[in-house]
Amino acid sequence: MPATLFDSPYYRDEFSTAAMRAVFDDTARFASWLAFEAALARAQAAVGVIPADAAQAITDAARVDVLDPVSMQAHFAKAGFPIIPLVKQLTAACPPDAARYVHLGATTQDVLDTGLVLQMRDGLALIAAELDATIAALVALAYRHRDTPMAGRTFQQHAAPITFGHKAAIWLDEALRHRARLPALRDRLLAVQFGGAVGTLAPLGDTGMDVRAALAADLGLRDPDITWHTGRDTWAEAVFWLALVGGLLGRIGTEVAMLMRTEVAELREPYVPGRGGSSAMPQKRNPVACPQIIAIATRLRALVAQAMEGQMQEHERGIGALAVETMVLPEAFLLASGALMHARPMLEGLDVDAARMRVNLDMGGGLIMSEAVMAGLTPHLGRGVAHEVVTRAAAAAVDQGTDLRGQLLADPAVTAHLDAAAIDRMLDPVRYTGTAGAMVDAVLARAEAAGFAV
């Protein structure tokens, strides 16, 4: 029976996508290892290290369907290293004249690292596509609600007015930064690993670096200047990038869930009949995507520290850090796919209640406009005195159960400088969103320049 949520048919689609699981399952893993072995043979033939017909024979034999997984697993349990059983079976599948050249000059870590790089390349393609779709949803929200006023909140209390488009554009701005980071990450991450036992390619003599270059070209990977058996920063960077994306999505999920509260009710996840109900309370419309996104983001942050353990390598090959990476990297990709899987449709169908946002803006009797009134009084009283006057009026409104307008009109220190019409203008939240709209426009312009329709 499956023991992890990723393997459980019941749970797995809540935390990862089928497409991403296919990138990191055993079939894909074995295929990536065989791709390395076949490409290595072709590269060595291209440089003249082995005969071309031997390379072709190895390529023909390097198929997942020639492997016996049960026998491989038994051999792995005995040998303790995962590539030894693969090399043995691939060698057995080749004619004798070609078998002698299988895995020539390579070491287990070369196969493991390059194989996982190939898998991460496919995984990044899936993540990038879903990130773009999520960005498109954020573009639509920011554009549609550019001027939709709502309460801005600090320390979970009403602070001053903003627009929902401004909030969405802040999310969009960060998402665009994550997208912009990806090309440089890809360039650093997607490098071939081929160094042999201690990274010097000594068995291949002067041809070693030429073989490595041909191998990289064959696999569509970057040819590094030097072996990176113990240089694991790029793998940690990949997990960190996935966690950054997850962090944004987790923050969005938290915000949506907070604004779904009964007392707030400004946002709702897309309605799907039967979704989000309670087993005990028939009236409930619970967030469903948000909890999963938040949980995934939490786990991704924890994986960053574990990924950085991969940098702790002894000598020319570490003792335990490689196994940690083998666990952490696939999980990070699976989790990131799950977060995007939930976030994209949630944002595409997000129910934004503009009317309720306006009700909530007005619920405090104008107190949310205290900063605006203080700003209006500052030219007459100075900032310090203006702050004291408005603080006194706000406190009186709370204590007496009245509104800020009435308290201001009753204070000679205010009416000596502002008439009722001026006070009413200052208390209008729509007039006090500052440059929110212009900021939204700036982010949307950047999104449009990146190829997103606005």
From TrEMBL:
Signal peptide: none annotated. Coiled coil: none annotated. Residues 365-444 form the Adenylosuccinate lyase C-terminal domain. One of its GO terms (molecular function) is lyase activity. The keyword Electron transport does not apply. It holds the Pfam family Lyase_1. It comes from the Bacteria. InterPro entries: AdenyloSucc_lyase_C, Fumarate_lyase_CS, Fumarate_lyase_fam, Fumarate_lyase_N, L-Aspartase-like. Keywords: Isomerase. Belongs to the class-II fumarase/aspartase family. This is 3-carboxy-cis,cis-muconate cycloisomerase.
